[in-house]
Design brief:
Elements lengths: L2 H15 L1 H5 L45 H11 L6 H14 L3 H6 L2 H8 L18 H10 L6
Length: about 150
């Protein structure tokens, strides 16, 4: 994984989980949807996707990149993943970025273009259109550069 790719993943985690929740969890890898820094909802085993429905959010999203269980099942098989651990979650997120054709933009430092290409995957990214909170591009760019990402 290149430094820009790692910084982009860190930015997604910042966008989806938030700095406060990242700090009180296993860097976001064990977070359930609906969690907050003041009320962390965490799972304790990486053996498999927790597949816990949060009825309030109507979602099974979990982990650093808030992966839905229904998608996890597909990618777990496709990528031959052994568990829902941090390495496996990173591999799924990277696969999402490949499928969105965002990797060239990420590695070239075309941050805004990369975000636009994968906004439909993560509801917290600007332009996602899921009627949920979307973070501002400038804030996400700051998280990206703080994580070591470079811009064109």
């Amino acid at each position: 994984m290149t430094p820009n790719e790692q910084a982009f993943l860190d930015m997604i985690a910042h966008s989806e989980i938030g700095a406060g929740l990242l700090a009180v969890s296993d860097n976001g890898y064990n977070v359930l949807v609906g969690a907050t820094a003041s009320k962390p909802l965490l799972f304790d085993s990486y053996a498999e996707h927790p597949n816990i429905l949060n009825a309030q959010c109507n979602s099974t999203a979990a982990g650093r990149y808030q992966i839905l269980h229904r998608y996890w099942v597909y990618y777990e098989r496709m990528l031959g993943l052994p568990d829902f651990g941090p390495d496996s979650q990173d591999k799924v997120a990277m696969q999402y970025l490949k499928e969105c054709h965002a990797l060239d933009d990420i590695n070239a430092g075309n941050f805004a273009d990369a975000v636009a290409k994968c906004a439909h995957i993560w509801a917290s990214l600007p332009g996602a259109g899921y009627a949920q909170h979307e973070n501002h591009l400038a804030d996400l760019q700051l998280a990206y550069t703080t994580a070591g990402g470079t811009l064109a």
